[in-house]
Specification:
six-stranded parallel sheet; seven-stranded parallel sheet; globular; 13 strands; alpha/beta; 354 residues
Length: 354
């Protein structure tokens, strides 16, 4: 049965999460619409996804489900509310304020792997107003498909050289970008390896431009929409406490982290920028112990390697709507208050969709 589905995002970095799901929905014969607000406003998903212009259009659509790659979703839009997550749990904050914070807005959480499934199942058992299904993360589906022309092009530009990737969070107290610029610039200038450089869209524009200026024969700057292709192309990642670390580790590839907030055995963590060359040597020749730690982490955070997480999200949503996941309790009172805040933020005081 053909149906209308709505994709929702508040930041540009959510687009690579939603696009594989949009493709899977369309392949199944459904109509896909997207409503992008705040930092994602003005962006778009690939046709034939229909872009909506505002809240009233979203309400009038009466979608079968709303898939959100944000921390929240407009509760006044009809349909099941499905949380896809905008990143992995990288422990930037305590659990109660971070990845496992409940806002009372979602009916279904589609988790990435055991590391998130188990805690959310425990929360679901206590709260009762949402269900949890481990599906894997749609954003990573392209990592495991047979071909990626963008990644192939990036590797071609390297001319056979090993490839390193640099990614950094926008959180100022955790960002490696200001500290590692000189060391990375020296590596790029040396030309022994080819670099793919990317910064979070919320990073300071001046800092982004400094890294963008390093592009040339030995490096390329990668936009947010190309992030998954870059992860696929690179051999080693240099980063900080960004969720890109987790995305990269899913491929069992080594990661070098600068002052990670919670260093793990699978990370090569360091705190002195001058040590970057030595850390890279370790990463490009990983020890058996490091490879074993990478495998263990990947199995915990995202064991799915078939490129079909989007299809599992769709199946889980249909199971919820068909009642096969059980009944939901009434949402908490705090959800009503948050709903009023969202209406104010979006400037919408019209009727609720059904």
């Amino acid at each position: 049965m053909m149906a209308d589905y709505l994709l929702f995002a508040t930041e540009r970095y959510a687009l690579p999460i939603l696009q594989p799901l949009a493709d899977a929905l369309q392949d199944a014969g459904h109509n896909v619409h997207a409503w992008l607000v705040d930092g994602a406003a003005g962006s778009s998903l690939a046709a034939p996804v229909r872009m909506l212009g505002g809240a009233r259009e979203a309400v009038d659509l009466r979608p079968r489900a709303v898939f959100s790659a944000a921390n929240w979703v407009p509760p006044f839009v009809g349909g099941a509310k499905v949380q896809l997550f905008h990143g992995f749990n990288v422990q930037k904050r305590d659990d109660a304020r971070g990845h496992f914070r409940l806002r009372g807005l979602f009916d279904l959480y589609c988790t990435q792997g055991p590391a998130t499934t188990v805690p959310f199942q425990a929360l679901s058992a206590r709260a009762g107003h949402f269900k949890v299904v481990e599906t894997g993360w749609p954003k990573l589906d392209p990592l495991f498909v047979s071909e990626d022309p963008r990644a192939t092009g990036m590797r071609a530009a390297a001319g056979g050289r090993p490839m390193a990737m640099f990614a950094s969070t926008f959180t100022e107290r955790l960002s490696a970008a200001p500290h590692l610029y000189d060391a990375i610039a020296a590596e790029v200038a040396a030309g022994h390896r080819y670099w793919l450089l990317t910064l979070h869209p919320k990073c300071a524009p001046a800092l982004v431009e400094r890294y963008r200026a390093l592009a040339g024969a030995n490096a390329a700057f990668v936009e947010t929409e190309e992030l998954v292709s870059a992860e696929r192309a690179a051999d080693v990642l240099v980063a900080d406490t960004t969720s890109v670390v987790s995305e990269f580790v899913v491929q069992r590839k080594p990661v070098v982290t600068f002052r990670n907030r919670v260093p793990k055995p699978y990370m090569i963590d360091f705190d002195d920028p001058s040590a970057l060359p030595a850390m890279l040597e370790q990463a490009f020749a990983p020890s058996p112990a490091l490879r074993s730690a990478l495998d263990a982490c990947a199995e915990d955070i995202h064991p799915w390697r078939d490129g079909r997480s989007s299809q599992r999200v769709i199946a889980a949503t249909e199971a919820l709507l068909a009642g096969r996941l059980g009944q939901l309790r009434r949402r908490p009172f705090t959800a009503l208050y948050r709903g009023l805040q969202i209406r104010r933020e979006l400037g919408y005081w019209g009727p609720t969709g059904h």
